[in-house]
Amino acid sequence: MSGGLTVEIQREPLRLRIVRADGSVAAACADEGGLAWDDERVHWRMAAPAGVRYYGFGQKQGFLDKRGKKMSLWATDEPLHILEHDELYQAIPFFMTLEQGTGRSAGVFLDCTGRVDYDVAKSDAAVMAMSGAGPVLDAYVFAGPHPKHVIGRYTELTGRMELPPLWALGYQQCRYSYYPEARVREIAREMRERGIPCDVIYLDIDYMDGYRVFTWDKERFPDPKKLVSDLAEDGFRTVVIIDPGVKLDAQYEVFKQGIAGGHFICRPDGEPFVGTVWPGNTVFPDFLRAETRAWWGELHRELLEDVGVAGIWNDMNEPSCFARNTLPDDVLQGEDGAKVPHAAVHNVYGLTMTMATMEGWRRINPDKRPFLLTRSGYAGVQRYAAVWMGDNHSWWEHLLMSIPMCLGMGLSGVPFVGVDIGGFSHDAEAEMFARWMQVGAFMPFCRNHSAKFTADQEPWVFGPAVEEISREYLRLRYALLPYLYNLFREASVTGLPIMRPLLLEYPDDENVVNLSDQFLLGRDLLVCPVYQPDATHRMVYLPPGTWVDFWTGQRLAGGRHIVAEAPLERMPLYVRDGAVLPMEPPVNHVGERDGKHLTLHVYAGEDGRFELYEDAGEGYGYRRGEWSLTAVDVRRTANGVVVAVADPVSGAEAAPVGAAAAAAVGGAAAEAVSGAAAGEAGFRPPPGPGSFSHLRAPQTGRQTGVRLLP
Questions:
Q1: In the chain, where the domains are located
Q2: Is 391 a catalytic residue?
Q3: Catalytic-labelled residue, pool 315, 359, 577, 615
């Protein structure tokens, strides 16, 4: 802790109080209880003043504000996703507070890898009680005072996401399972013939030989390398699933290597623990061991190097075990001579598996950006993988639930997050799928996934109207890729979420502190999903300022509720006045982007500024300075609106990557001038909504359009 904080410690009874430089209290023990230990657990009873809200806690259900709730963090394969079943896949013992009236925020990270329990002012309205496995209390307090400061400092400690490959921001199509090979090719062909943008096709566990990880079923997939190559030629990346469970089979090479290397979790008697998962009798790697992580990572070499798969999907890594839902508490993990009961480290199993996968990727593909996806995780999982919220259902309730669940993950430091669009289990209904596709197109991770024994869930199976809605919203996502990629870059630098609750941008606004059914994409796009059947309108809260209806261009005063029209083909969507949205022509996959056409949609009712970050979208050249940053300034003057597009600043020491241009328009033809010299000339569009001009960057040849919106 720094920045003028004071820590006051009372010895008998043990209490602590953390005070900011301005005298406000960031965290303090309750009057009764404070800090205490028993034989197995540590307990911290914090004061919970009236009006303080609590957010985060990883993957949790219900409204954003968890005050008045009891919760446990214990990574669990729990497909029901109902409020009565609290424990889910992601266990992140971090929360942040928000004070009513002041907007001040603080955060607490309890670094406990076993079970953590919270009583958030439920049993005692004045106490936030938490407990975790002892005997050491390893806690971090982040004093804020702004919510963004809290997330920034927390992710400075636990790590931030890497920039993913650009294709990972595209639409991803999955099913449990697409097989045989002919079915995979059929899905790819339908996507392209129907003009539905898509970058990724997944292979679930049925590509394997008897569910043995790192194998192929040669009858279903006789030539996986050719399949993956053919898909790549048509713009599809292939992502394959890898579970942690290894089939107990004396003839299976992975099992034999694991036994020889001592890589499996053992019972107290020293014998490998045997559970039951998809392959039948199964053993589990001990990813706490550095040698095991190295061995596991190397097992990916054939998939990544020979077959050419583009990403790895880690599933069932809570870890899931059919007989008892997870491993026994007393099985042992860790380095030789330092083993601990599984119960003490249960919540990091998914994290350590993903670490092992990442370590292997970096050895095998050192010049290629990784794409990893994990179902389970702990604090810091954002360094290694995207996450999704597990096996939801094709229910309207789960469509709604997905919004605060993803927002809570973002507030827990995990920005690359999404859900199974349309729901994993049960049969999706056409209207619900359309509404889910609309909101899914604005989530950081955008994947449609469904289970065996459910109806097909590709966009075209629901009829022409739903197919067209899906196509339209995915095309909009692809058009917004420059904006979305900038948000990913911001997340990689600052730790801030991509998909944001309104409280993050408007912490002083009491109307948004528990608003859980709409969100901001970055700070400029307000997304208002429809989550009820037969709805043609929905209530929307517009934060302070002026907002522009994305579809109609109507300017609306904020700080109030409105009733928005929402016919099936339209999800209410608003843009903050003063925003600059960079957009490009939509494509069927990111490989079709030519980088030569960009339109800056300028919402010029207010002054604004936007910095457009660009790099190759693949590889690590950006770490060597191979990137550019172009500043766009929007100012209102007595003579109209000035839009000044500056020369791009290159990350390298060489010359700028290409001089951008600005244009002066005042009823006559546009005149291109250098951005540096534009000054007050800038871009003055003719009066009237939707006015438009083109700029051409002389070195890159890229045509940049500037569209002034009302």
A1: 6-158, 167-242+290-318+348-494, 594-709
A2: yes
A3: 315
pLDDT band at residue 555 under the 50/70/90 scheme: very high
The rounded radius of gyration (Å) of the Cα atoms in the chain is 26
DSSP 166-226: GGGGS-EE--TT--SHHHHHHHHHHHHHTT----EEEE-GGGSBTTBTT---TTT-S-HHH
Q: Which two tokens mark 409? A: 């993950």
Looking at the DSSP assignment, which residues form a beta bridge with residue 29?
46
Rounded to two decimals, the pTM is 0.94
For 567, list phi and psi in degrees, rounded to 5. -60, 165
Q: Which long-range contacts (CB under 8 A, 24 or more apart) does 269-274 make?
A: 273/327, 273/328, 273/331, 274/248
Two structure tokens written together for 527: 């997304």
Active-site choice (77, 199, 243, 391): 391
CA distance linking residue 140 with residue 134, whole number of Å: 16
Which entry of 181, 199, 318, 490 is annotated as an active-site residue?
318
What residue type is 249 in one-letter code? Answer: D
With 80 as the cut, is the pLDDT of residue 699 above it? no
> 511, exposed or middle or buried, with CB in 10 Å at 0-12, 13-18, 19+?
middle
Q: What is the mean pLDDT of residues 337-356?
A: 98
DSSP β-bridge partners for residue 311: 239
As a whole number of angstroms, the distance between CA 25 and CA 18 comes to 6
Say yes or no: domain 167-242+290-318+348-494 is CATH 3.80.30.20: no
The CATH class for the domain spanning 6-158 reads mainly beta
Sheet holding 525-527, edge to edge: 499-500, 519-521, 525-527, 573-576, 546-549, 555-557
Query: What are the pLDDT digits (tens) for 481-534?
Result: 999 999 999 999 999 999 999 999 999 999 999 999 999 999 999 999 999 999
Q: How many contiguous H segments (helices) and E segments (strands) does the chain have?
A: 14, 44
- pLDDT band for position 701 (50/70/90)? low
Write the DSSP string, 547-569: EEETTT--EEE-SEEEEEE--TT
E-strand ranges in 254-413 read 275-277, 280-283, 311-314, 332-333, 340-341, 372-374, 386-388
Rounded average pLDDT over 672-689:
34
3-state class (DSSP) for residue 657? coil
Pairing of the two strands 661-664 and 671-674: antiparallel
